[in-house]
Write a structure and sequence with these properties.
- The chain is an all-alpha fold and 222 residues long.
- It has one domain: Glycerol uptake facilitator protein (Up-down Bundle).
- 71% of the residues lie in helices and 0% in strands.
- The protein contains eight helices and no strands.
- Helix 1 packs antiparallel against helix 2 and helix 5 packs parallel to helix 8.
- The protein is globular and about 50 Å long.
- It starts with 8 loop residues before the first helix and ends with a helix.
Length: 222
């Protein structure tokens, strides 16, 4: 997620779209597979979901990091735009690519498991506790990215995977921390889903968490 090589915007956008699609397919697909195999044990389902998501994050950051910066997340792109490391024009295109990739990933997961292409989620995720968890998860993810990107950039893929995996278990929201993934998960009535009406608050808190983390990062390094 550091300095990029010279790649055209179109190549960077395709990398963001593919990476986000794989991320969402891993999140939703592992949740479906976990439910099919766990005989109702939700702890096992969450563990499977955690491991698959963490593994996928490491891979997509490693393979796309030098092409697009491996954001796969609108609030990560927002943070880099606020720091003037990504132009606002490119930021808008990144968001479109990430959201399109997320929706594609949800549909691919459904196709693989013989489910309807789009399913409006009925999984409620609301309340002060869950909202607080999502704020903390987003803050933790962005601070991890920014601090590691400065101090130890080669560790970013592993640090990002680990903070998300930890967040699955220590936050009440299970650490969405990504507006594009959140939107995509609203289209899946599976273990990983979120009701569409719960999405706006999640996204607002993700943005707030990202901005706070960016400000703290700059305060540390002022």
């Amino acid at each position: 997620m550091g300095t990029l090589k010279e790649f055209t915007l179109s190549r960077r956008l395709v990398a963001e779209m593919i990476g986000t699609a794989f991320l969402v397919a891993a999140v939703i697909g592992s949740g479906i597979m976990g439910e099919q195999l766990a005989n109702g044990n939700m702890g096992i389902v969450l563990l499977a979901n955690t491991m698959a998501t963490g593994a996928m994050l490491i891979v997509i950051i490693l393979i796309f990091g030098t092409i697009s910066g491996a954001h796969f997340n609108p609030v990560v792109s927002l943070s880099f735009a606020l720091q003037r490391e990504l132009s606002w024009k490119d930021f808008l295109f990144y968001i479109i690519a990430q959201c399109a990739g997320g929706i594609m990933g949800a549909m691919l997961a459904h196709i693989m498991f013989d489910l309807p292409l789009i399913m409006e989620s009925t999984h409620a995720r609301t309340g002060v506790g869950i909202w607080t968890g999502e704020l903390i998860a987003s803050f933790a993810l962005l601070l991890t990215i920014l601090m590691c990107n400065r101090e130890k950039p080669e560790a970013v893929p592993y640090a990002v995977a680990m903070i998300i995996m930890a967040g699955y278990w220590f936050t009440s929201s299970t650490s969405f921390a990504n507006p594009a993934v959140t939107l995509a998960r609203a289209l899946s009535d599976t273990f990983a889903g979120i009701r569409p009406e719960d999405v706006p608050v999640f996204i607002i808190l993700q943005v707030i968490g990202a901005i706070l983390a960016t400000k703290i990062f700059h305060w540390f390094h002022a």
